């Protein structure tokens, strides 16, 4: 039940986000005097609607998005009544059209920023100084956290009853102990600990020196065995190595909590990081298409592959099921930020495509005026329809691919 509740809540949150996206278009268009005839949440048959002034508001039967009908978005729109021609969107100044078209993405950004600000105050944001690369991790002090077991294979998974117990736990080491030597080999950081362990043999007894509350001690352990690649070649051949059954406790906190004022700066910094990550993720989309196909045809699902709204909702359900509400809200933030950026891409039929054309017209008119030539007028959207259809076709195929992968081979972050 908790999983289904989480899926429903996340899907509802996305629907609300999309509704606010369209509300951004609606409110700014009305504020500038443009005529908006319809605002609906969902698609398909109308379930309920009402009219206020010149606009019909309502709910459609398929809750997969929404739309806002602004009269005369392009000069080629042929459903504009003669009386409405002065209020047709395409007749308004380019800056006003830009505000209206960008308002949807601005709504997504506003949702993401408000949610991030609240998270910064209540739970904290990821620490930018937290060690994330292998080189940074190896420079951390060798402060250990005991594992429950030693996983014999070269993989990350939960322990089972069949897995051997952690040698460190059996040797009565404790969480927070700082390892200083293994069999007489000095250890100054976590990288030294890995090197010292690789010099031992699985099943061998080892004297592990440590500091506990600044007091030195020694533990005798019988090392276990796992499979790992060479330390200097993470992509190299995997082989048996000695294991102590510990992980690293980083010396820096994973998250930083802020006050209401400090959270503004923390939110801005994290938003910059999100912008970079979103850019990198969008660059990787084409190369991830084969991985999605592999997942659909029975291969292992790469956790770095794109997900659809279906996949995001499933992860949201897992988060609620495992009481990981922070993950739930951070996923909501990331998705809104991504949608906001994606909608601003200069491609029709996206909002960014309309903005790009508006500014192209403005720039072209300026150039022609300087050349003392007649204004070439508005762009003919009909001539761009083949390109628009191509974008719709590619986008639709990619959406279908991600939805299929999320249904038949979804990404899971928790063991169920």
Task: Give the arrangement of secondary structure elements.
Layout (H helix, E strand, L loop, with lengths): L1 H31 L3 E17 L2 E16 L23 H29 L2 E2 L7 H5 L5 E3 L20 H4 L7 E5 L2 E2 L3 H9 L6 E8 L2 E8 L1 E5 L10 E5 L2 E3 L6 E2 L5 H35 L12 H13 L3 H19 L7 H20 L14 H24 L8
Antiparallel strand pairs: 1-2, 3-12, 4-11, 5-6, 5-7, 7-8, 9-10
Helix pairs in contact: 1-2, 1-7, 2-6, 2-8, 2-9, 6-10, 7-8, 7-10
Family: Belongs to the peptidase M50B family.
Cofactor: Zn(2+)
Subcellular location: Membrane
Can you walk me through this structure?
One of its GO terms (biological process) is proteolysis. It contains ten helices and twelve strands. With 416 residues, it is of the alpha+beta class. It folds into two domains: 1-124 and 300-408, no CATH class; 134-248, Roll (Pdz3 Domain). The protein has a four-stranded antiparallel sheet. Helix 1 packs across helix 7 (309-321) and helix 6 packs across helix 10. It is elongated. The model has no long low-confidence stretch (mean pLDDT 91).
> What's the Cα radius of gyration?
28 Å
**Percent in helix:** 40-55%
Number of helices in the DSSP assignment: 10
Give me the side-by-side strand order of the main sheet.
6-5-7-8
Low-confidence stretches: none
For the sheet with most strands, the description reads: 4 strands, antiparallel
Quickly count the domains. Answer: 2
**Quaternary class:** single chain
Distance between the termini: 13 Å
- SSE topology string: HEEHEHEHEEHEEEEEEHHHHH
GO biological process, one term: proteolysis
Protein name: Protease/peptidase
Pfam families: PDZ_6, Peptidase_M50
Domain PDZ: 160-214
């Amino acid at each position: 039940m908790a999983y289904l509740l989480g899926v429903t809540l996340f899907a509802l949150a996305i629907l609300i986000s999309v509704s606010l996206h369209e509300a951004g278009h609606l409110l700014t268009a009305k504020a500038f005097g443009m005529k908006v005839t319809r605002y609906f949440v969902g698609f398909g048959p109308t379930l309920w609607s009402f009219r206020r002034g010149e606009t019909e508001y309502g709910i459609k039967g398929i809750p997969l998005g929404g739309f806002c009908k602004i009269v005369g978005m392009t000069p080629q729109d042929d459903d504009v009544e003669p009386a409405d021609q002065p209020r047709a969107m395409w007749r308004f100044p380019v800056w006003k059209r830009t505000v209206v078209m960008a308002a949807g993405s601005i709504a997504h950004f506003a949702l993401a920023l408000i949610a991030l600000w609240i998270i910064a105050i209540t739970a904290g944001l990821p620490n930018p100084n937290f060690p994330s690369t292998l080189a940074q991790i190896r420079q951390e002090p060798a402060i250990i956290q005991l594992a429950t077991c030693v996983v014999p294979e070269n993989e990350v998974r939960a322990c089972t009853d069949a897995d051997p117990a952690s040698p460190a736990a059996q040797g009565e080491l404790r969480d927070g102990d700082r390892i200083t030597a293994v069999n007489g080999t000095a250890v100054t950081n976590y990288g030294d600990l890995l090197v010292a362990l690789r010099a031992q043999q699985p099943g061998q007894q080892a004297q592990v020196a440590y500091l506990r509350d600044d007091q030195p001690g020694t533990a005798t352990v019988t090392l276990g065995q796992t499979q790992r690649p060479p330390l200097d070649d993470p992509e190299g051949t995997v082989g048996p190595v000695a294991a102590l059954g510990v992980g690293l406790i980083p010396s820096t906190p994973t998250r930083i909590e802020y006050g209401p004022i400090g959270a503004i700066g923390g939110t801005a910094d994290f938003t910059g990081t999100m912008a970079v990550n979103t850019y990198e993720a969008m660059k990787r989309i084409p190369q991830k298409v084969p991985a999605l196909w592999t997942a659909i045809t029975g291969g292992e699902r790469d956790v770095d592959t794109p997900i659809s709204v279906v996949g995001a909702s499933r992860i949201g359900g897992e988060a609620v099921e495992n009481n990981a509400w922070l993950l739930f809200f951070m996923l909501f933030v990331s998705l809104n930020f991504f949608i906001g950026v994606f909608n601003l891409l200069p491609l029709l039929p996206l909002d960014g495509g309309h903005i790009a054309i508006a500014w192209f017209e403005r720039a072209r008119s300026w150039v022609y005026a300087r050349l003392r030539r007649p204004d070439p007028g508005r762009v003919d959207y009909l001539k761009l329809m083949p390109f628009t259809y191509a974008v719709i076709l590619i986008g639709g195929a990619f959406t279908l691919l991600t939805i299929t992968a999320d249904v038949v081979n979804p990404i899971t972050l928790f063991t169920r």
